[in-house]
């Protein structure tokens, strides 16, 4: 441990000499430095322990409140207070709402509508699946057409290059020129 001490000697007591005064000031400074270090470490340790305990307690309480909420019975009523539907717990209510959401009728844009309205064709689940299939099919066919077109283009280019090359050699009589140079 490293200690940096500063000592101010403003006065020397009549009964004490310089050595005693310096000694007493050094002792006081060392005690103060050590005490400050211990206080800081103790405070840090206490704060960490409190934080851990508080977070743990909050998590337990939150879990308990959430579990109690999810186990609660739920009754749906109309504006007159008459019971429309009753659920034995919130989980059952969420499941029912999700199921109803997925089978809800939608139009071509995926917007919720009534079945008797013009243009309604799908339930939401069917719409989602249909949309994904169309997207996949469009991407697949676009990629396939590009690939096939590029292969045809390359094949035609290679064939034309070969055919034109041999025709040019005949027209320019390159064969005869090559025989002369030998």
List keywords for this structure.
182 residues; mainly alpha; two-stranded antiparallel sheet; two-stranded antiparallel ribbon; 68% helix
Give your account of this protein's structure:
The chain contains 4 helices and 4 strands. The protein is mostly helical and 182 residues long. It has 3 domains: 1-70; 71-121, no CATH class; 126-181. The protein has a two-stranded antiparallel sheet. Strands 3-4 form a two-stranded antiparallel ribbon. The longest helix has 54 residues, at 18-71. The model has no long low-confidence stretch (mean pLDDT 83).
Question: Between the first and last Cα atoms, what is the distance in angstroms?
Answer: 96 Å
Lateral arrangement of strands in the main beta sheet: 1-2
| Radius of gyration of CA atoms, rounded to a whole number | 45 Å
Into which percentage range does the β-strand content fall?
A: 5-15%
Sequence-ordered SSE layout with sheet pairings:
Elements (H helix, E strand, L loop, with lengths): L17 H54 L2 E4 L5 E5 L2 H14 L1 E2 L15 E2 H48 L2 H8 L1
Antiparallel strand pairs: 1-2, 3-4
Compact description:
With 182 residues, this protein is mainly alpha-helical.
């Amino acid at each position: 441990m490293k200690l940096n001490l500063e000592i101010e000697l403003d006065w020397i007591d009549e009964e004490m000499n310089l050595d005693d005064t310096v000694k007493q000031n050094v002792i006081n400074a060392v005690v103060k430095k050590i005490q400050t270090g211990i206080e800081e470490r103790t405070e840090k340790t206490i704060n960490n322990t409190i934080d851990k305990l508080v977070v743990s307690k909050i998590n337990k309480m939150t879990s308990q409140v959430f579990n109690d909420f999810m186990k609660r019975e739920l009754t749906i009523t109309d504006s007159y207070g008459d019971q429309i539907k009753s659920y034995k717990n919130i989980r059952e209510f969420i499941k029912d709402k999700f199921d109803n959401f997925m089978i809800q009728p939608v139009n071509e844009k995926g917007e919720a509508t009534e079945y008797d309205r013009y243009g309604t064709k799908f339930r939401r689940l069917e719409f989602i699946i249909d949309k994904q299939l169309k997207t996949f099919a469009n991407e697949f066919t676009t990629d396939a057409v590009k690939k096939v077109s590029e292969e045809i283009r390359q094949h035609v280019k290679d064939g034309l290059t070969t055919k034109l090359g041999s025709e040019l050699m005949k027209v320019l009589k390159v064969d005869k020129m090559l025989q002369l140079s030998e």
